[in-house]
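Fold this sequence, please.
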Amino acid sequence: MGTSFNVNTYTPGNDRTALVEGSVLLQARNGQQLKLQPGQQAEHTGAGLRAVAFETDDVLSWMNGIQYYHHATVPELMAEASRFYGLTFESDATQFSGVKVTGLMDRARLQEFLNDLAITTGGTVDYDGRTIRLH
């Protein structure tokens, strides 16, 4: 349909398609159809498709090397940071259970992200050039 959009399938069971311009017609496996307008995001859940407004910075900033996260658990953040930076991030999930963090990752500022991570979680970060461990 001649368009600009973003598809996010990183979270199993929570596929999202955000429309920037043009139009997108989605169809769920159950046959439900949904046509998006610019500024809308389709969320596919167990109940089907629904359209909601989306925050442009949160959804599209990755194209400019920035990734925002809101109230993320430490395991969620470790998985997101691994994809974003192309490095292995590990943490002790039991040590940080219940800890949720909000902030941003800048692809050009890994060390700043690691410093912020240590401060906001109260943990210690070790980096051996390939694997980052939060403990």
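The first strand starts at residue 4 and ends at 8. The chain has a mean pLDDT of 89.
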